[in-house]
Design goal:
Helix content is about 70%, strand content about 5%. By secondary structure, the chain is mostly helical. It has 2 domains: about 80 residues, no CATH class; about 70 residues. A two-stranded antiparallel sheet has the order 1-2. β1 and β2 form a beta hairpin. α2 runs antiparallel to α3. The longest helix has 28 residues. Its main location: membrane. Keywords: Cell shape, Glycosyltransferase, Membrane, Peptidoglycan synthesis, Transferase, Transmembrane, Transmembrane helix. It is a multi-pass membrane protein.
Length: about 160
């Protein structure tokens, strides 16, 4: 009982203000809509999953568990990226776009065809087209931001 612990108050204040800055930058409406859509999607998978699991010869909750896992990975990714300054992507946007276009060419050349379409590389569940959607949004956002003065001067 006689022991005391020294807590560096300046470190606590710094961490608290950093967390406050992150909270101020969060769009809670967008986050709420994202969580609601994720929960709705999980409900739909819970509803339809057992029927498809029977056809795939998997346990009834197979698709729900897999969807929960990926939803968790997505939420962790959202939490991690909330701490990044989005201006960081401005410098990388061209390289990200070039790498994405390269991965799409790799799919075209080396991808496996399933039911007449080629979507993934070597049968993985990760599809470069999904990455292309995100990178296209980032690239177009950076491009529009660089042209904002011209765009703001346009009158209808």
């Amino acid at each position: 009982m006689g022991e005391s612990t020294f807590v560096n108050q300046s470190n606590l204040r710094g961490a608290s203000s950093q967390l406050r800055n992150v909270r101020q930058g969060i769009d809670f409406v967008l986050l709420g809509v994202t969580v609601a859509l994720t929960l709705f999607g999980l409900l739909m998978v819970y509803s339809a999953g057992p029927k498809f699991a029977v056809f795939a010869e998997k346990p009834p909750d197979f698709f729900l568990i897999r969807q929960l896992l990926w939803a968790g990975v997505g939420m962790i990714a959202v939490g991690i990226t909330a701490f990044f300054d989005y201006h960081f992507y401005r410098k990388l946007s061209v390289w990200m776009m070039l790498a994405t276009i390269g991965s799409l060419f790799v799919v075209m050349l080396l991808g496996e065809s399933t039911l007449g379409s080629t979507r993934s590389i070597l049968g993985s569940s990760v599809r470069p087209s999904e990455l292309a959607k995100l990178v296209t949004i980032i690239y177009v956002s950076v491009w529009l931001n660089s042209k904002r003065e011209v765009l703001n001067s346009i009158s209808l």
